[in-house]
Amino acid sequence: MVFSFDLQTTDGRARRGTIRTPHGDIETPAFTPVGTQATVKTLDVDDLHAMKAPVVLANTYHLYLRPGTDVVERHGGLAKFMGWDGPTITDSGGFQVFSLGFGLEHGVSKISNIFPDEDVPERRQSKQKLMKVDDEGVSFRSHLDGSLHRLTAERSVKLQQQIGADIILAFDECTSPLHDERYTARALERTHAWARRSKEAWTNREQQALFGIVQGGAYKGLREQSAQYMNDLDVPGYAIGGSLGRSKQDMYDILDWTTPLLDPSKPRHLLGIGEIGDIFAGVARGVDTFDCVAATRMARNGAVYISPEAGGTAANKFRLNISGAAFADDAGPIDPGCDCKVCATHSRAYIRHLFAANEMLGMRLATIHNLRFVLRLMEEMREVIEEKRFNELAKKWGVAELV
Amino acid sequence: MVFSFDLQTTDGRARRGTIRTPHGDIETPAFTPVGTQATVKTLDVDDLHAMKAPVVLANTYHLYLRPGTDVVERHGGLAKFMGWDGPTITDSGGFQVFSLGFGLEHGVSKISNIFPDEDVPERRQSKQKLMKVDDEGVSFRSHLDGSLHRLTAERSVKLQQQIGADIILAFDECTSPLHDERYTARALERTHAWARRSKEAWTNREQQALFGIVQGGAYKGLREQSAQYMNDLDVPGYAIGGSLGRSKQDMYDILDWTTPLLDPSKPRHLLGIGEIGDIFAGVARGVDTFDCVAATRMARNGAVYISPEAGGTAANKFRLNISGAAFADDAGPIDPGCDCKVCATHSRAYIRHLFAANEMLGMRLATIHNLRFVLRLMEEMREVIEEKRFNELAKKWGVAELV
């Protein structure tokens, strides 16, 4: 097995390690840029290399629908298809199926009919549901064309084998904060059964490492039960996913409940979380890797990261909106302390102009800056953990109360 | 004066030369990527360097409206503002004013009222015109917010001095193929008067070279008269602009009429023309530099250039539409003979996927390919002109009848 995790040192619960994959090492704590559709939006692979991106996460749901996992497979797998030579991760597809389904049906029963031939009143039938879960798997409609599809643990693993990422995730049911404890417990049973079935379907063990996903909503008992289950399942790594509660504090509690129950010799990934304060909180609670679209999505809206030296605070979420008129004549870089190529070359005035003029380059430059900003913060975190100074860094960033 | 043109050799009427500017040399024949709003759409300056772009052309009209030529000036001029260290060109603003004005009013009198306080019937008044020309200059409305503005020769030169490009253009009235000879002659008188006034207003002669613009529509007598006028005006270079007739043949005729009358020791720029066949035809008729949005605009629509070896012909305009389903599984590069980074790294299938999935990266990769494709063709043209084999190259590309 070419996958391994070396835990080098700790500082409190913060961990400094290395994940070794067939496509290279990931130094942890690490942040994973998200390349949903086999591209980190607006960036090419040279951009990813230049910012020292350690790994890219793509979404199985999206690649399955477009261009098709068979196409990705025929073109050598995700990395080769997108021209990337580093490590890759795929999710199980569950999150998109459940979040697009439940999210769009917000407040509507999860068990509604999605099949037009079922016996439902005409009025309800016309409003077709996007997904329907059962113990075996989940049926869902494509958000692209409404076509019907089905995912099971076995199928998710099969699709992820076709995509060929270094790290793949067990199939899970992702619940929402709107689900009650009873439903969440029922979903967790399925998630555990699906994790076991995912492990059984996982045949490509020399090339891909399977991570089990800890679920259980914001319910302490369920989260502990799930962490224990995944720990006992004996897979190469863990992800913490699903509903992380209704507040930041809920999320921190969930991490406090779960990470102590997970085998410390295996890496832990926190799914879909990656704002600055959350990264500090996660690392402080023993999370090794993060993925999140916030840095890139915000960038496309003109929200760019700034460090404490440039006025960033927990209150302003370390951001400023570069498209604001206040920057129309600002000759300085986004962040004087940043080592990204955008800050080396371009003024706030120029980037503001690009956003004002609806030039796509603005989104790309902001994306490069935001990702490099986060990746550099991770580099700094790795250094201070080695030196047992993680709390100092948190203080410097004004987020000491989060760690 | 730091601007000069060295004509090194000729092959028939095709010319091989070097334009020297304060920001570096432009080897000719050359193609100028268009950076309308101080960015070549989707690209950053590293992309321009990697593809060996010799120069960038920006539009005075657009920069005047947004971010303002004063802003560009305060940030060190166009090149510095956009982070580009090579040569730059600006147009006079005339083309946009007249093309947006007349184009949008297609078929409507050019002398219509644009001022709400003038005595016009209510019905017409409500349809405010976008521009109004007089002998002194042109009043126009911004296409962004409808605000009123005025351009004169003196003002155009002043704005271009603020922008600070190496090569600037005299202010001109750009006519349309719909204008008759009488109107075109009247407009030409203004264009000549404005060229003389532009020369008088051109004070920054050590830093910027002024090119006069040959106009006259598709009327032989007017074009000859204009070429003679610009030649006699004794400015550092010439541009051939305006209406180039209703057919490709009209354009070739216009070049045949005009370039022989222009001082061969000065460079000639063909404004807004740059498709493959037209570049061959222009170079064959003594044009040194070209600018055109076709390569970049087409790229954003998925039309990518292919060489004769990859199936490109004059009939298909050396293009294929990469977003077509036919390329969904095509593992080859856009053009196997192309030396751009896109063809070195990415398959047609991947780029097709990016277009199908509405990923901005698709537009950027296609833009990089198309521009490098044209720039490389220009490199090849320079080589064959030196070797007196320009006609051979035209034959190889199947466009011998154009040269």
Mean pLDDT of chain A: 92
Q: Compute the gyration radius of chain A: what is it? A: 21 Å
Question: How many strands appear in the DSSP assignment of chain A?
Answer: 16
Main interface pair? A-B, 38 and 38 residues
Count of individual helical segments of chain A: 16
Distance between the termini of chain A: 35 Å
Describe what you observe in this structure.
The structure is a homodimer of 403-residue chains. The first copy, chain A, is globular. Residues 106-127 of chain A have low confidence and may be disordered. Chain A has 403 residues and is α/β, with parallel strands linked by helices. Chain A folds into two domains: 4-106 and 148-292, TIM Barrel, CATH 3.20.20; 298-395, no CATH class. Chain A has helices spanning 45-50, 60-65, 69-74, 78-82, 94-104, 122-126, 153-163, 181-201, 220-233, 248-258, 276-284, 294-300, 341-345, 348-356, 360-386, 390-396, and strands at residues 4-11, 14-21, 24-28, 30-32, 56-58, 88-90, 131-133, 137-141, 148-152, 167-169, 209-214, 237-240, 268-270, 289-291, 303-305, 319-321. A six-stranded parallel sheet of chain A has the order 4-14-13-12-11-10. In chain A, strands 1-2-3 form a three-stranded antiparallel sheet. In chain A, strands 7-8-9 form a three-stranded antiparallel sheet. In chain A, strand 10, helix 8 and strand 11 form a beta-alpha-beta unit. The first copy, chain A, has 16 helices and 16 strands. The A-B interface holds A 37-39, 41-46, 62, 66-67, 71, 74-75, 81-83, 328-329, 331, 341, 345-347, 349-350, 352-354, 356-357, 359-361, 363-365 and B 37-39, 41-46, 62, 66-67, 71, 74-75, 81-83, 328-329, 331, 341, 345-347, 349-350, 352-354, 356-357, 359-361, 363-365.
